[in-house]
Amino acid sequence: MKPSRVLLISILATGGLYVAGFVALGDSYPTIDSNGQEIVEWFSDNGTRARIYAWTAAFISLGLAIFGGQVSALLPKPHRYIFLAGVLGFAITSQVQAWFWAGLALHPQSLDPPAARTIFDIPAYWGPLVNGSTATMAAAVATLGFGVTPIIPRWLMWLSAIFFVEQAIETVTVFGQTGFIAPGGTMNVYLGGTIGFGWVAGVVYWALQRIDSAGQPEKKPA
């Protein structure tokens, strides 16, 4: 199978699993605004939902590894290593966050509400911290668009720059406690997620035009 097809299939599957994970949680899942008793009750009633969410995270990490490996191979040094470090940081942070959700779903009835709230607060900070990894990915790509002979098209440079700035600003959610800038809240999940999906689509579109010929040996003149 051509590398371009592997990349396209894997990123579509990864995006689908990412959305499926949130769909599995439903529209009543606990947030940073939930109290301890609400968290205990939700995990007691929705343990399967939480485990499905964690299960999707495992395969999302696989998809991110394929995406990171294939795209980084198209980038020059040291940008490829910086980009790949950002992708791995994203994957690991997502795994740890889902790890906590699955753990809370195992024996929720035995949790005291204050303990449940404290444990839940830890993975809630995945949003502000994963911003560091996504900003790293964006910076590695954006800087390739500067100079007289840019390696990437200008549109991808600007798209990457916008994504970098938004993700850098989004780190303020580490200081938020409620509402739009709450950790793991609307700014992290919806605003950042929407712009992130658009950026990944742009990177994949650019990569698909080059990936099949990237590993081909140059033909020597007869």
Q: Please, could you describe this protein's structure?
A:
Helices cover 71% and strands 0% of the residues. It contains nine helices and no strands. The radius of gyration is 19 Å and the shape is elongated. The two termini are 30 Å apart.
* Rg (C-alpha, Å): 19 Å
Query: In one word, what is the shape?
Result: elongated
User: If you average the pLDDT, what whole number results?
Assistant: 92
H and E string:
HHHHHHHHH
**Based on DSSP secondary structure assignment, what is the total number of beta strands?**
0
Helix percent band: over 70%
The secondary structure category is mainly alpha
State the end-to-end CA separation: 30 Å
| Uncertain runs | 217-222
Number of helices: 9
List the keywords:
222 residues, mainly alpha, disordered C terminus
Q: How is the topology of this model organized?
A:
Blueprint: H1 3-25, H2 36-45, H3 47-72, H4 79-104, H5 113-124, H6 126-142, H7 154-170, H8 186-208, H9 211-214
